[in-house]
What does this fold into?
Amino acid sequence: MKIREEVKNIKPYNPGKDRGGIKLNKNESPFSLPKELKNEILAALKDVSFNRYPESTGAGLREKLAAFHGLEKDNVVVGSGSDQLISYSVKLFSGKGAIVTPPTFSMYRFYSEVSGLKVFPVPLNPEFDLQIEKIKSAIKDAAIVFLCSPNNPTGNTFKRDSIVEILNTGTAVVLDEAYGEFSGVSHMDLIQDYENLLVLRTFSKAFGLAGARIGYALGGKKIIDYLLRVKPPYNLNSISLRIAEMMLENYEIVQERVEFIKSERSRIYRRFEEVCYPSQANFLLMDINAGDYFRERGISVRTFTGRLEDKIRITIGTKKENDLLIDSLKDYTEKRDDY
Ligand code: PMP
It folds into this structure.
């Protein structure tokens, strides 16, 4: 057999070490579904025809998402997580490579490389902001630009003007708003004016459904039509489709939880401002090299290699988890010279 060179060069995805009892390393929701809703969902699943394929594009959920965002079904594609939609988006556009802006979500690089695109990294500046001029210089050879706002793992958002400036080049832009609910800001309205824009959202974060694997892309009708053409049929299963529909009908639960996460985020940020980067997401990047310290205390946090190797990212958890985190952080910051 002959393995493609691109595949030989791929390093396996490293989701980080996952040993501790308290999981603050994957930007998940700390909350399971409320018991009543879980029971309602389980009851509704009894009516799912397990022997039948779902509608091939998940039309029912697309309709509901469109109504939820004031759009039309033809503006929406659903996927098994937004990850899967990243993997489809790299198949759509011609050009030599993908622009990524590290430090950012590693899957943009991963799927670009798998699909044979070169990766043109344009690192964020020291304030973790976009280097617009450098992006614009790299863009002539690019098939696609990936932007993540709020950015994982830095937590900051990018200015609308910067996003618009990149869109104005005409190159395809994938704007990943996986954490958009926690910032309260979205630029999805730009799909009305920019046919080169795809906005990605997910049910894995604010909706607390990482295990059900549901994501969606929003865009103008033309780009969505092409995305539907490259997407395999039935890419989202009947069970997840139904769960997502029911979760949308109960959006007030999501809102309540987002408010809780935001208030816990500011509680932790205010207490440790000197080592914390401001965040608009459900996590905080911290300027402490304390991965092992937390792991020893049964708390999993995200550590990095490269530019962020002396930092950690912690996901906002439940009140109890955050209290424990705060106690450990207090201890660490007071005695950091001893560690
Ligand atoms: N985008 C970003 C920025 C993420 O951080 C993640 C998950 N960590 C994803 C997309 C993928 O989410 P999912 O596939 O669960 O929708």
Observations:
- The longest strand covers residues 142-148.
